[in-house]
Design goal:
The protein is α+β, with helices and mostly antiparallel strands. The chain folds into 2 domains: about 60 residues, Winged helix-like DNA-binding domain superfamily/Winged helix DNA-binding domain (Arc Repressor Mutant, subunit A); about 55 residues, no CATH class. Helices cover about 30% and strands about 25% of the residues. A 3-stranded antiparallel beta sheet has the order 4-5-6, with no helix packed on it. The chain is elongated, with a radius of gyration of 18 Å. It starts with 10 loop residues before the first helix and ends with a strand. The relative contact order is 0.14.
């Protein structure tokens, strides 16, 4: 798959699709480092902003992690915790506070799930590691 600048699909989406395909095929295995922003830009002859946007998209999908000074790497497959909502409970997805992001070690763009129990108790769980089940 090549990046087609004449396509109606934005360049950053094309690059994200290409990288996602390589991750899903195992070409970029969990834990492996992705090429740098500069390398991807040069290899695909696209602007660095398009690379940044593609990386941000994949990060928001939970496929990759980035760290200043360490680069970008493929995340290990996440184990999801199954939470059964009890009658009278409610759940919403929202963006975490800075403190919640730090405490849960969440990547930017990953939401949290806030569950309110029938007695008003509140639980906040990482959205990329939680699956809600209705009874």
């Amino acid at each position: 798959m090549r990046i087609d600048p004449r396509s109606h699909t934005p360049i950053y989406i094309q690059l994200a699709d290409l990288l996602r395909e390589k991750i899903e095929s195992g070409e970029f295995a969990p834990g492996s480092t992705l090429p740098s922003e500069l390398q991807l830009s040069q290899e695909h002859q696209i602007g660095r902003e398009s690379v940044r946007m593609a990386v941000a998209l994949l990060r928001s999908e939970g496929l990759i992690r980035t760290s200043r000074g360490r680069g970008t790497w493929v995340r290990e497959a996440l184990q999801r915790e199954h939470i059964e909502l009890t009658p009278g409970s409610s759940a919403i997805a929202r963006m975490p506070s800075s403190r919640e992001r730090r405490e849960m070690d969440l990547d930017e763009g990953v939401p949290v799930i806030e569950i309110r129990g029938p007695k008003g108790e509140v639980y906040v769980l990482p959205g990329d590691q939680t699956e809600l089940i209705r009874p």
